Amino acid sequence: MQAHILDRYGKGQTLRLGDWPDPVPAADEVLVEVHAAGLNPLDGKIRDGAFKPILPYKPPFLLGHDLAGIVVSVGANVRRFQRGDAVYARARDGHIGSFAERIAVNESDLAMKPASLSMAEAAAIPLAGLTAWQALVERAALKQGQKILIHAGSGGVGVMAIQLAKHLGATVATTTSAANADLVRSLGADIVIDYRSQDFTTLLSDYDVVLNSLDAATLERSLAVLKPGGRLISISGPPDPAFARTQGLNAVLGMLLRLMSARIRRKAKRAGVAYSFLFMRADGAQLARLSELIEGGSLRPVVDRTVPFAQLNDALAYVDTGRAKGKVVVGIR
């Protein structure tokens, strides 16, 4: 099959389009013909080598976490899917590779594709949608009447988190550029802050939750808007000791992450706020819940652009700029 192959780690390293062995599904896996693959900043960070200590893929290997496509075959133990089903997924860590014509995905990571979405639209959902769900529903237990600040509201995770927070009944503030203000308002944002000309710390107070995807300075400044007992959740780091335990990292890496997160954990404790780092996981059952919200009209994908498979490297470079509104998708079929 044709696939985009990472031959070596390196900042901005070009993926090579070439032949790759067809995947053979294990007993609990589903072989999917990929029609569209969503691109994420995580793909670029893995390519650059930033995640080697915790995700030690050995080149050459295939990148790509998000996919939508058609089931080609199923393993002996698979019961929920059959040949011809339209599905979508975020492939689990250690088994990624959606930048290819086919991929074997664990049955528990898959969900039926929402019928109302095209393949490209469906491929824009999994990683970002699951991140929003795990941050707001699992980690924050966001409730009606609470207030949440979502940084980078026009980004892939931001557009999902705004819509999910509104569905949960929260008041939503978000930071974005003036050019993207109308977009985030259309998704349900109640308060829109232009990060270039306004200071969110002077405009917001007594918030229950902050979802951060930006730099360390923004993370620390976000403590100022939270009420005592509030939750500061970051998907951009620094990783904390709880993450090290969940990932089963060795003692040396665990100690390193403890040191990396010591400053923000100490400041959060002084402010009476709980800090946690979220590294989302694949989960087909949660993806099915998101499908229900999509079909019910509470969530919709935001696709910045869909590009041909041959232009994947250009698309990754665009994602690296941080200017994409929502998600960038590669069409494979």
Automatic annotation (TrEMBL):
PROSITE patterns: QOR_ZETA_CRYSTAL. It comes from the Bacteria. InterPro entries: ADH-like_N, ER, GroES-like_sf, NAD(P)-bd_dom_sf, Quin_OxRdtase/zeta-crystal_CS, YIM1/Zinc_Alcohol_DH_Fams. Signal peptide: none annotated. Gene3D superfamilies: Medium-chain alcohol dehydrogenases, catalytic domain, NAD(P)-binding Rossmann-like Domain. Residues 12-330 form the Enoyl reductase (ER) domain. Keywords: Oxidoreductase. This is NADP-dependent oxidoreductase. It comes from Sphingomonas abietis. The lineage of its organism: Bacteria, Pseudomonadati, Pseudomonadota, Alphaproteobacteria, Sphingomonadales.
